[in-house]
Design brief:
single chain; alpha/beta; three-stranded antiparallel beta sheet; 15 helices; binds flavin-adenine dinucleotide; binds iron/sulfur cluster
Length: about 375
């Protein structure tokens, strides 16, 4: 019997899921089993859209459709958290399994702190996350650095620090993330600063770090993070949907070292990005936000703000209706709202119509606050 803290190499026993899955299809096998065994009513996951740059949320109730969601989309920068509240009634009327990156998970925890979703009805399968690449950057990067037409790319992966593309004619080309990032490409800036690498507040945390030897690329490293996660894993194994074995001790060590190296890298980027704000932070923020067209996208797409979007959009003593650019108080009001909760998911920045580096500002404010106050970023959800 598995228990919290246990670790496994795991893979699907289904040949199709093994083939379509990123690393042996363990995540898809567990999701499919959760549906088949009626442990959940539906699965919320991510599937490839028209091309590798398009990641779409998928709500699945038929176990046969799970295969559509197998595979990792590194240009998939969508955030699933608010969808649970906006379209699924906060999972109040249904049991839902959700695949979550660190930011998806933190977004859900923030919503749970506000009683906006029912965590008890959510089974969370975490995927480790080294970072994602904005689809816009990815297209430009592939044209400029790889010399390839972005529309000719049929697959991408991140392996051993390289972003690797595969073209229609079967060619592979990889360039190291470090090199890409030196030239202004690579992961989103919020991802570079992110330190939620192994999402242990989910029920299971799954990833490829630490899978070595003959299982490399064919199995997923699963860390059991809750009793519920242990029960689901046991149930999938007993139903013969999932195969597991003990991880190679050297693999466990490598996984730990990789996670630590990613923390250090995150700290390095924080130092660099926050220092670039300069001593005159107010001037920097005022200059950048002066091109705001008040489209409200930052408010509507933030997992922390969208719950109070109507309030944040209202005119006030200083923020006049129809005034462009808005009085800086429009932004200060929002920063005040998220200053203890920004999860650095990057949605506000990525979806800003005017490319204002909003997540950088709110993340810097949150990190400063974190040094002084509780709860810390990513702290467990509390009720009430
Ligand atoms: P599969 O059976 O292939 O299932 C994959 C699941 O991931 C599906 O449920 C799918 O809906 C979901 N998914 C795909 N793309 C996204 C997305 N953009 N956002 C949310 N969910 C998504 N592991 C590491 O150990 N180190 C890493 O640095 C790392 N970086 C990753 C970065 C991203 C953006 C993603 C999505 C995953 C990353 N992983 C990383 C996890 C790894 O790639 C595999 O997902 C994991 O090993 C599970 O493999 P599998 O074959 O069991 O999953
Ligand atoms: Fe992954 Fe963190 Fe970026 Fe989310 S913010 S995509 S968890 S690196
Ligand atoms: Fe995410 Fe931006 Fe909201 Fe912070 S302020 S939680 S980065 S959308
Ligand atoms: Fe202004 Fe950008 Fe927010 Fe739109 S998303 S309101 S342009 S800061």
């Amino acid at each position: 019997m598995a228990k919290k803290g246990d670790m496994f190499y795991a893979w699907s026993t289904d040949a199709d899921l093994q083939k379509k899955g990123e690393c042996g299809g363990a995540v898809s096998a567990i999701l499919k089993h959760a549906l088949e065994s009626r442990a959940v009513d539906a699965v919320l996951a991510v599937k490839k859209g028209a091309d590798i740059y398009t990641a779409e949320p998928a709500l699945i109730t038929n176990p046969a459709d799970i295969a559509q969601t197998a595979g990792s989309l590194h240009c998939g920068t969508l955030l699933l958290s608010k969808l649970v509240k906006k379209y699924l009634d906060g999972a109040n009327g249904m049991k839902l399994a959700v695949t979550v990156k660190g930011c998806d998970l933190m977004g859900l925890l923030e919503l749970a702190k506000r009683n906006a979703i029912n965590l008890d009805n959510l089974f969370l399968i975490g995927v480790n996350c080294g970072g994602s690449v904005s689809p816009v950057t990815a297209r430009k990067m592939i044209a400029d650095k790889y010399g390839v037409n972005p529309d000719d790319v049929v697959k991408e992966e991140i392996d051993k620090g390289q972003f690797i593309i595969q073209t229609k004619d079967g060619q592979h080309k990889g360039i190291s993330m470090d090199e890409l990032e030196e030239h202004g490409y690579g992961r989103r800036s919020n991802c570079r600063r992110c330190k939620m690498k192994i999402p242990r507040q989910a029920d299971l945390a799954c990833g490829n770090w630490g899978v070595i030897g003959d299982k490399a690329g064919k199995a997923t490293f699963v860390e059991v993070c809750s009793d519920r996660g242990a029960r689901m894993l046991d149930s999938a194994v007993q139903a013969n949907k999932l195969a597991v074995e003990a991880p190679n001790p050297k693999g466990i060590e490598i996984r730990g070292k990789t996670e630590n190296a990613m923390f250090k890298l995150g700290d390095k980027w924080r130092k660099k990005d926050f220092a670039a704000l300069g001593r005159d932070v107010w001037t920097t923020i005022a200059k950048e936000t002066s091109r705001c067209i008040k489209c409200y996208s930052c408010i509507e797409n933030c997992p922390v703000c969208f719950e109070v979007a109507d309030e944040l959009k209202k005119p006030s003593l200083l923020v006049k209706a129809g005034e462009l650019p808005p009085n800086p108080m429009f932004h200060l009001r929002r920063f005040a709202h998220i200053s203890d909760s920004c999860i650095n998911c990057g949605q506000c920045e990525e979806l800003c119509a005017m490319d204002i580096p909003l997540a950088l500002f709110s993340h810097a404010i949150r990190v400063e606050g974190d040094a002084a106050f509780e709860p810390k970023l990513g702290a467990p959800a509390y009720k009430n």
